[in-house]
Amino acid sequence: MRSLCAEAGPNPGNWTNLHYLRNLESCDQTVLFGLNVHNSVADPNSILTIRACVASQGQTYEAAPSPDAPQQESPRNLVVAENCGAKAVKSTFTTHAGPSTLSKASGTAPEAAHVAEAADQLARFVGTSAACGTTILFAKYKSAVVGLYSGAQITKHAARDFVDSFAEKQTSALQICQPSGAAVTLGVVSAGFVDMAAAQDAIKSWNDALCLNGSTTATTTVSIDVLVSTMDNSFNASTISYGNVTARGGPGLLFSRAECKTQEVKAGDSCPSLASRCGISGADLAKYNPRKDLCSTLMPKQHVCCTAGTMPYFGPKPQPDGTCNTYKINDNDLCYNLASTHYLKPEDIENFNKHTWGWTGCGNLQGGQLICLSTGTPPMPASRPGAKCGPQVPGTKKPTNDTALADLNPCPLNACCDVWGFCGTTVEFCTKTPADTGAPGTAKPKTNGCISNCGVNIVNNDKAPDHLMTIGYFEAFGQLRGCLRMSASELPADKYSHVHFAFATVTSDFNVDISNVEDEFKLFMKTSGFKKILSFGGWAFSTDPDTFQRFRDATKKENRDTFVNGLVTFMSRENLDGFDFDWEYPGAPDIPNITPGSSDEGNNYLDFLQLLRSKLPSEKSISIALPASYWYLKQYPVKHMATYVDYFIYMTYDLHGQWDVDNKSAMPGCEGGNCLRSHINKTETHDAMAMITKAGVEARKVVIGISSYGRSFRMNDASCSGPLCTFAGDRNHSMAYAAPCTLTGGYISNAELNDIIKDHGNYSIVKSSIDKDSNSNILMYGNSGAVDWVAYMDGDLKASRIDWIKGLNFGGSSDWAIDLQHPSDKEDRDDSDYVEQDDDESGEDDLTCPPGENPGTLDGLADKTDSLYAGCARLYAMDILYNQLVDSLSLFQTNSEGYDDKFSWYEKWTKEQIQPRIDEFMNLGDGKGLKYFDCYWAYANRDETKDSCLGMPHIWEMSQGWSIRFDLLDKQGFFDALTAETGIDESWVTFGDEVSNYVCADPGDVRPGLGGNRPCAKLYTKKLNYPQKASDDDISVGNPKKLIEASMDNVTALRTSLFSSYLSVGLSFYDDGPNDTSATDAVVAYSMPVLQLTEAINSMSQIKEIGEKAKEEAKKSLVLEILSIIFMVIPFVGEALGPLVGSVTSVARIGLLIGEAGNGALTVAEVIEDPTSAPFAMMGLIAGAGIGGGGKLSKADALADASKVRSALKGSDLAKFPQGFRDQDALVQKVIKSLCSKK
User: Fold this and answer.
1) What angle do CA 945, 950, 952 make, to 5 degrees?
2) Which end of the chain is less packed: N or C, by CB atoms within 10 Å?
3) β-sheet bridge partners, residue 135
4) CA neighbours within 13 Å on the CB side: how many for 996?
5) What pLDDT is recorded for position 1138?
6) Pairing label, strands 747-749, 186-192
């Protein structure tokens, strides 16, 4: 939903146009909407135009101008005018209520709270902004839809009050149904949104002046304002009931042949306003216009008689410029009524509109649609807010040449434009489905119908390339991985025509920067057998907050020469064969954590390529990477870029991923964007190839991407693996296993996949298959309750895909990436093998550290450190910490399964404690909260007495009904004390009335002769303005699992950093420093965050042992374990903490809430509350915040600083950590003490 009511204003012509109920169903916000009530939502042949906007709390509506031309007048142009040219008088009506539920399809009643919210927004709109004349409008909120019909003679404030009354009665329908006609009919109906058809039928009945069946007469009557002529002094229903006009009128009036004097109906007119302009009474208007439904069918340009006589002919005539007489459709129009009002026949309207844009026949009139009521040229169609292509883009002028309407405003990239004005590249957008009328701009029901650039065929591929390119990317940054560290010297000489070295970057002064990959670049330049291409940028460089601006600035006019000259110089010096640029993505509006791109970035990129081409030798190639997504590709002027590049790298290997979650457009047929789809789907690849060739690029210039990695997803149901089955996690956090080398959940190399297939390792489930529909290899692997689904390409599938690419005359294939295919022949496959150490570290020449000597646990290492060489002890310590971190992450994946059920119980149980703790705090007589109130007390049916709440009489001990009204005197003091005592936050409290169930008064002694027991004398007690628990929806209890997921970026940085330092220690690359302490510092620095995470994951294991039906003490254990997770993980999360679980202080309050203040599991909160404390400071250093290292620690001083922070942690603070953490930390300190004694 794109339109906010507050921004779009009250005119539905400015609201978002929707065409399927599912678009409304998926919106959880309150939506106001209208549609033609005659186009049934239950009829599969109906074509719907739903005009909708999103409302909000406190919504106000201010008029916004109509986007249409003046002559295209709307009879519902929402003009706020209370009396609408007439006079309001009071009149009494009887209301009729419907049943408590109204169902048509499901029989499921909507939630009362949802009905109330929808009705409230409906009342707000009607009271301030509904038009003069008939009002038909719906409001939807979550499960409920509420519809309103207000006849033309009902004032808007009366309609608003009626909607409010409906909300209070909790019935499915409320109506004032008059035999005098729809003009004074007023009705409100509610239903479950799934039963929208029932609500629509009710509105249609009222519009036809019919009453709902099955209603019962209410016992009360209502007095409301209705409109009458200014010549009338009261409302008389008979003045608008025309059934016996002949009896009231004289014969001369009925048979007069003279023409009457007339008034033309204007927008918003009613019979009273017309009678007022005529200067006659409502009864006279009825007499001169003897048509029973006149007042409910008034339309602009219609005429009424103000005197006796026959109506002159006012049949519609073409406009002076030859355009037909136009009319804008309302939500209650039918061709029959239009024809009757305008002196036409329904078939005339059909004939006039054979060439009118969007005309699908009299059976499918669309709200806001412009049609012809005469001969002449069809009008320009009404604009559609949000339309991106075609003639209905707002502001589009009628063409003065022969341009067809369908060809106006073509889509970027020559993508398909559908009848609703949206661009796309799939069959849904690109298939023509004209309606049976044959009129332009139409589609058959339930289709979108293409109007321009239709089709999904690959074009521009008649010429084959001179040479088929086989390109492979080499990830030079792969050296940072713990394994799978292929060297450039291992690149195969005869397999690829081109190898792209990834990545160089750009400095802030626009020079080439290879400093991070310089060693590999030197090796790369010594290779032979393929063209050597240097690739710039990549996703990380293009989107990192520190570097995303580089490409944007380097390609600007003022910096372009500097950038190009530096590139030319570098090319000449290094004798490369070409440059490749991977800017992801110019002009992109929605890359997370960076400012949106500007609209000129695509053209800046083009101008840069043009300048670079002019300065590079012709034999040196230029290529750029392109996204295979229409959303991002449309910013690239690819047709013009093709002139200056030798080839495009088309990234058709990331068609889907975790990032699709919540994107309704990412996956056809999957609203949640979380279905199992292949990132290398062949059909979608074909569509992407069609998209770029339709954009004007020759196929032979496009190199199609293939992959040497898989995209993995944690299956929600291991037995459901089809394209409509779903996966877990949000768009930023994958729940899939992180493989040992790539270390990223959701991304796994072919080499790692092959290892799993050959040696199942720790996985009990490993299933391989081929999905023919997507042309992908599929691997499902994991353990019971935690199974991943991954799509990938093996060697055979790659070969088949390359043949297919070749057969379509594309330029070749591009494989990401060579180093992901198999382990390096030169890398050490077992990092625990014998590793040389520096003499300075060990004090011995040619020292080796046998892996068999590594005890594998901190406990074992602490026992034998004294007998080990210091260098080996440090290496083993780093190895143990690294493996403990890896094991914790794996255990998190396992513990996540079934955890959400436990958390929901924790959340429910925590909220249940709030009211009892409030009651305890406010206990009558001695509650600690009473001193902040005055109490006004009274016995039933007696006057109130003001008193101190602590000093008032104990009326609650008496056998009488009573009430106490609490008057809060010191709000700040009350909530400070409440929070300190119970942990309850102010936002968790509301004030309201608490009425007890009655008790029977003491009957006293039963006197003889009075029979049995006396009847119950009911006694009620009331607490008024009493503090109460707020709605569950207003109380946020953060989910620690979400916290751990949010910490994964920093956890991954920790893992990468730890492994890098581990290698440095093991390979003696570490700069020991003057005191021989750097390797020891590394052990100290990494131990604390690793042990914190271990403690958190262990707490998850404990939680899984606590069932929902646990005893009271087990419930408390559950809460304590969950709080323990939060406090251990908080330092990994940083700024994301607040939105997930609130402040540390607010989390700690839950301990008070459950009566566990001072519990040892919670005392660590006192440490974590300080953002400068050791856990935060050490994690900050490791993440690079303290050293500017971007998370890649290579400086001993950073680890030394972190080690000092740990050493400065007071024993009293350490004692506040959980026992499990302290036990493991003590082992680390024992190892460190032993190492220090070896100096």
Assistant:
1) 30
2) C
3) 150
4) 15
5) 45
6) unpaired
What are all long-range contacts of 1067-1072, with beta carbons under 8 Å and residues at least 24 apart? 1067/835, 1067/836, 1068/836, 1068/837, 1068/838, 1068/841, 1070/838, 1070/841, 1070/1196, 1071/1196, 1072/838, 1072/840, 1072/841, 1072/1196
Burial of 69 (0-12, 13-18, 19+ CB in 10 A): middle
pLDDT band at 640 (very low <50, low <70, confident <90, very high): very high
Q: Which 3 state secondary structure label does DSSP give 838? A: coil
Burial 313-325 (b: 16+ CB within 10 A, else e): eeebebeeeebbb
- 833 confidence band (pLDDT: 50, 70, 90): very low
What pLDDT is stored for residue 368 in this prediction? Answer: 92
pLDDT of residue 609: 98
Tens digits of per-residue pLDDT, 310-324? 988 888 999 999 999
Q: Which of 506, 511, 476 is nearest to 491 (CA)?
A: 476
- Tell me the one-letter amino acid at 262: T
Tell me which long-range contacts 754-758 makes (C-beta under 8 A, separation of at least 24).
754/822, 756/781
Pairing of strands 1018-1019, 945-948: unpaired
Region 128-157: what's the mean pLDDT? 87
Residue with tokens 């087990």: 1114
Which range among 68-72, 223-227, 503-507 shows the weakest confidence by mean pLDDT?
Answer: 68-72
Instruction: Determine how many CB atoms are found less than 10 A away from the CB of residue 701.
Output: 21
List the strands of the sheet with 87-97, edge to edge: 16-18, 50-54, 31-34, 135-141, 144-150, 186-192, 173-176, 87-97, 216-228
**Gap between the Cα atoms of 623 and 533, Å rounded:** 9
Candidates 1196, 1197, 880; CA nearest to 1069 is 1196
Distance of alpha carbon 1081 from alpha carbon 1226, whole angstroms:
16
Domains of the chain from N-terminus onward:
5-224 (no CATH), 238-305 (3.10.350.10), 469-713+797-820 (3.20.20.80), 876-883+1038-1234 (no CATH), 917-1004+1014-1034 (no CATH)
Contact 46, 342 (CB under 8 A): no
Query: What is the pTM assigned to this prediction?
Result: 0.69
Considering only the C-alpha atoms of the chain, give the largest distance between any 2 of them, rounded to a whole number of Å: 130
The answer to whether the Cα torsion of 318, 320, 322, 325 is positive or negative is negative
Q: Give CA separation, 448 vs 133, 295, 694, in Å.
A: 33, 37, 20
CA distances from 800 to 536, 792, 794, 805 (A): 30, 14, 10, 9
* Of residues 878, 1226, 808, 854, the one with CA closest to residue 1083: 878
Q: Is the pLDDT of residue 1043 over 50?
A: yes
* Run of H or E residues at 650: strand 647-651
Residue 72 token pair: 């295209």
Query: The tokens of 214 are what?
Result: 């099955």
Catalytic residue among 117, 475, 520, 584: 584
* Token pair listed for 656: 């889907």
DSSP 934-954: EEEEEETTS--EEEETTTS--
- 841 — pLDDT class (breaks 50, 70, 90): very low
Rg (CA), the chain: 38
**Which amino acid would we find at residue 939?**
Y
Question: Predicted confidence band at 791 (pLDDT cuts at 50, 70, 90)?
Answer: very high
Reading the block at residue 886, the tokens are 């890896």
pLDDT digits (tens, 9 = 90+) for 572-631: 999 999 999 999 999 999 998 899 999 999 999 999 999 999 999 999 999 999 999 999
Residue type, 332: N
| Mean pLDDT computed over every residue of the chain | 82
Look up residue 667 and give its DSSP letter.
Answer: S
Query: Is-catalytic flag, 1113?
Result: no
